[in-house]
Design goal:
The protein has 112 residues and is mostly beta strands. The protein contains no helices and eleven strands. The strands form two sheets. Strands 2, 4, 5, 6, 9, 10 and 11 form a seven-stranded mixed β-sheet that branches. The chain has a four-stranded antiparallel β-sheet with strand order 1-3-8-7, with no helix packed on it. It starts with a strand and ends with a strand.
């Protein structure tokens, strides 16, 4: 069955960095577009970044452009989200997704 397992979240001070990972299995990862979403308390889930199957095309929401980088390692079946210059407003549960499948999420908290 399809599994998406996120890791790498935690508590970080403003201006700090985190690297999220999402290990995928149960589907053909190498031909799948992968996405990172986030959901803050009381807010709707929002798309943060996406990456094409071969990694040649990426997309970011405006609020994270220049700070976040999405990447993937197809042989490892893993997608990453490098987050730099983190802000309190980046606090959310971060989910990776492919098609209609979702991971369980990993909490990112940016606070001093």
């Amino acid at each position: 069955q399809v599994q998406l397992v996120e890791s790498g979240g935690g508590l970080v001070q403003p201006g700090g960095s985190l690297r999220l990972s999402c290990a995928a299995s149960g589907f053909i990862f190498s031909i799948s577009t992968m996405k990172w979403y986030r959901q803050a308390p009381g807010k709707e889930r929002e798309l943060v970044a996406s990456i094409s199957s071969n990694g040649g095309s990426t997309m970011y929401r405006d609020s994270v452009k220049g700070r976040f980088t999405i990447s993937r390692d197809n042989p490892k079946g893993t997608v990453y989200l490098q987050m730099n210059s983190l802000k309190p407003e980046d606090t959310a549960v971060y989910y990776c997704s492919s098609a209609n499948y979702w991971g369980q999420g990993t909490q990112v908290t940016v606070s001093s």
